[in-house]
Design a protein that fits this description.
The structure holds 2 protein chains of 2 kinds.
Chain A: E1 2-8, E2 16-17, H1 23-26, H2 31-36, E3 38-41, E4 44-47, H3 48-51, E5 52-55, E6 65-70, E7 76-77, E8 87-90, E9 106-109, E10 125-128, E11 151-154, E12 167-173, E13 186-192, E14 196-198, E15 206-211, E16 215-217, E17 223-232, E18 235-244, E19 252-253, E20 256-257, E21 260-265
Chain B: E1 2-8, E2 20-25, E3 31-35, H1 39-47, E4 58-60, E5 66-68, H2 71-84, E6 88-92, H3 98-111, E7 114-117, H4 124-133, H5 140-146, E8 149-153, H6 157-160, H7 164-169, E9 185-189, H8 195-198, E10 202-204, H9 211-222, E11 230-231, E12 234-235, H10 236-247, E13 251-256, H11 258-261, H12 267-280, E14 285-290, H13 297-308, E15 314-315, E16 322-323, H14 330-336, E17 341-345, H15 349-352, H16 355-363, E18 366-369, H17 375-379, E19 382-384, E20 395-398, E21 404-407, H18 420-437
Parallel strand pairs in B: 6-7, 6-17, 8-9, 8-13, 9-10, 13-14, 17-18, 18-19
Antiparallel strand pairs in B: 1-2, 2-3, 4-5, 4-19, 7-15, 11-12, 15-16, 20-21
Classes of the chains: A mainly beta, B alpha/beta.
The complex binds iron/sulfur cluster.
Chain lengths: 266, 438
């Protein structure tokens, strides 16, 4: 595996749209070609080389390419967008849309990310060691397909609207989240190890949400069913199962109505 | 002698009343009186007559004083500012005509701007919900003639849209509602006992920030499913009873305002309210409508919608239209430092935006086009006064129910003053030369 290191030397005055920072575009390119790849600051088309120092060459394919992003990237958007394979390591905290529409490979952020992390994600593994903002693994505006596959793990806290319109894959937040978890959820799994204030599973059709901590206000459309012994992300114990959202439509399978499942740790 | 202009449109709120009568002096220069308008509407007309009105563009000087400049200089400054910026914000558009909006959008496309209107701090969340789940709506005329179940959720038209209730929603006698308010059951959902709530048959004094839960509970009740004993401070008995009352109507309507669009859950509240409306259509006819504020904010959404595909917060910086509230909305852009110039027309963000955003406007190259002196004109580098749309110049406007109505001109603007559209057209012409060069 070849490693390309890009180091921020000349941060943008506004914000940089760097959707080319992905193993897919870096693959097969020499350092100089990578520096010449385009990026946008406002309406100005510039090049990655204007902002980053690039060292190392891309591998033959995306899967053979590893990118290490160094320096202050707090004003850089879209790192790892649509990547299908390979690896990206971001040593600090990038701005919005990190790993958006990601399809494969591994993306590790050692700092925190801003909103819209992993939106519309289809596959791969996305790990955030710090916190993240709103709309983690959610759908892009107007899309009814949020996260569809892959796994996101956030070691810190997340904002609101985690897993909005989610219909596949797994999101694990080890800390707390803000309101609205799994709103309009149609599938997939969300695990919150900390607390959620309210609006958990609103308008949920299908899928599973686990909450280890507290829920201050439960949605009215969630009805207690039973207590169940479960194993969830390495923890084994008793959970209360609620079915919902009773105000929402639900499909029938084999003559049975299928509900969204909300498990709360006892 | 005076003369009376009839069927005048009121360019103030989204109710866009079209039955005003304005008495003007014989020479057609001054407004003497306004009939049929509510107090705020009448004030809009009288305000154009203020003697201390600013009639020429003003440039703010380093010491905070103003220097009068010509319209030519103002056009030059504006065009240069927009041409030199990497990502200018063009905000406002809700208090001007669709014609002016359209010229503004041409400019925005040339300079790769972000165009955003007042929905960004108002009903933008409604527009997100509409994009997510659609909207079953109708016209105000249908409501007047048919509706017998009226819900006001998080809005207080008694103060914000004063003639809404007498013209359309509570009192008018319509074709199938010939007993006026006696035909109608009125529900108000509001944590406060507002003047609108005092007129209601049912007032749900909801706990603040629990609209999403209560809307959800109504959906559960409409389906006849299980509910906890209380939701949002309302007992389940009252929720089931209200659900039956709504189902038993012939035609229902939910009006909603900023009490739900800008409180906790925002777009999700509206999403849930639209889905409740959809559910109720399994039993009777039900509609839902946003109580739009500025008289032509709806028009701005319409024009932006048919030109770029999005109703607000449209980012044209990369030459194609993108839209993502949370990123491309004015306050996010300003606070995060994503834009490098600000152009405001037809709104007053200086009065409505958080102070952190207003500070940013004051630090950037900025132009404010507004007939009045406003907090925005005070923080902007250049203030361009213009004629009042709907008073001194006509133009197309959209009522809150998306019905287009042509506003009428009643008096002439002061000698030599430009209209929004004229000013924008001149900036656009100048930009044709500037942007072609760069
Ligand atoms: S209700 Fe609105 S449109 Fe009608 S007169 Fe009053 S301010 Fe004008």
């Amino acid at each position: 595996m070849e490693t390309v290191t890009i180091t921020m030397k000349n941060p943008p005055g506004l914000f940089l749209e760097a959707d080319n920072v992905s193993p897919d575009t870096f693959a097969g390119k020499k350092a100089a070609d990578i520096a010449a790849l385009h990026a946008f600051e406002g309406r100005e088309q510039t090049s990655l080389g204007k902002y980053f120092e690039v060292s190392g060459n891309g591998g033959a394919t995306a899967a053979d390419t590893r990118i290490v992003v160094k320096g202050d990237v707090s004003r850089v958007k879209y790192i790892g967008m649509k990547m299908t394979a390979g690896e990206v390591v971001i040593e600090n905290s990038p701005d919005m849309y990190t790993g958006a529409w990601m399809q494969g490979g591994k993306l590790l952020v050692k700092g925190s990310t801003n909103a819209f992390t992993g939106i519309g994600m289809k596959g791969g593994e996305l790990v955030i060691e710090g916190d993240t903002g709103n709309y983690l693994g959610a759908a892009y505006r107007g899309d009814w397909r949020g996260m569809q596959g892959g796994i996101i793990r956030v070691r810190g806290n997340a904002g609101s609207d985690t897993g909005y319109f989610m219909n596949g894959g797994t999101i694990i937040v080890e800390g707390n989240t803000d309101v609205h978890v799994g709103t309009h959820m149609e599938g997939g799994t969300i695990i919150i190890k900390g607390n959620v204030p309210s609006k958990v599973g609103g308008q949920m059709v299908e899928g599973t949400i686990y909450v280890f901590g507290t829920i201050d206000v439960m949605m009215p459309g969630f009805k207690f069913v039973k207590d169940e012994e479960m194993e969830v992300d390495g923890y084994k114990g008793l959970f209360s199962l609620f079915h919902g959202d009773l105000g929402e439509r639900h499909p029938k399978r084999k003559g049975q109505v299928v509900y969204g499942k909300l498990y709360q740790k006892i | 002698m005076t003369k009376t202009v009839t069927d005048v449109i009121c360019p103030f709120c989204g109710t866009l009343c079209d039955d005003l009568e304005v008495v003007v002096s014989d020479d057609g220069k001054t407004i003497v009186d306004v009939y049929n308008a509510c107090a705020i509407g009448a004030e809009k007309f009288m305000h154009s007559q203020a003697r201390d009105r600013v009639k020429r563009p003003r440039m703010q000087q380093p010491d905070g004083t103003y220097k009068e400049v010509s319209y030519d200089e103002a056009v030059e400054y504006t065009a240069q500012m927009l041409a030199n910026a990497k990502k200018p914000l063009m905000y406002g558009w809700s208090s001007t005509s669709c014609e002016a909006q359209s010229v503004g959008h041409e400019i925005a496309e040339k300079v790769g701007a972000i165009v955003d209107n007042t929905a960004t701090v108002c009903h933008g969340t409604t527009l997100i919900a509409v994009q997510d789940v659609g909207i079953p709506s109708c016209t105000l005329g249908e409501i007047k003639n048919r509706a017998d179940r009226i819900i006001f959720w998080g809005c207080n038209p008694a103060h914000a849209h004063p003639r809404h209730q007498s013209r359309y929603s509570i009192f008018p006698r319509g074709f199938f509602t010939n007993k006026g308010h006696k035909n109608r059951k009125v529900v108000v959902v509001d944590p406060r006992r507002t003047d609108t709530a005092k007129m209601a048959d049912y007032h749900f004094q909801i706990e603040q920030g629990r609209d999403y839960e209560l809307l959800s509970a109504f959906r559960v009740a409409v389906r006849g499913e299980w509910l906890p004993d209380t939701v949002a401070g309302i007992s389940k008995e009252r929720i089931y009873e209200a659900a039956e009352m709504l189902k038993s109507g012939r035609f229902g309507i939910i009006f909603f305002g900023m009490g739900v669009t800008q409180s906790l859950s925002k777009n999700h509240n509206i999403d849930e309210a639209i889905m409740l409306t959809k559910d109720l259509n399994d039993y009777t006819k039900f509609s839902i409508m946003a109580m739009r504020g500025h008289y032509n904010v709806t028009g701005s959404g319409q024009v932006m919608g048919w030109q770029f595909g999005f109703p607000y917060a449209t980012d044209l910086s990369r030459g194609f239209a993108r839209y993502n509230p949370g990123e491309t909305t004015s306050n996010d852009l300003l606070v995060r430092g994503e834009v490098d110039a600000v152009f405001v027309l037809g709104s007053d963000p200086g009065a409505h935006f958080p102070i952190s955003s207003v500070k940013k406007i004051s630090q950037l190259p900025s132009v404010c086009v507004d007939p009045h002196i406003t907090p925005t004109s005070e923080v902007s580098k250049l203030h361009v006064p213009v004629a009042f749309v709907g008073v001194e110049v006509g133009g197309n406007c959209y009522r809150m129910d998306n019905v287009p109505i042509d506003a009428r001109k009643v008096v002439d603007p002061p000698e030599g003053m430009l209209t929004d559209e004229e000013f924008l057209t001149r900036v656009n012409k100048r930009l044709e030369q500037l942007v072609a060069v760069t």
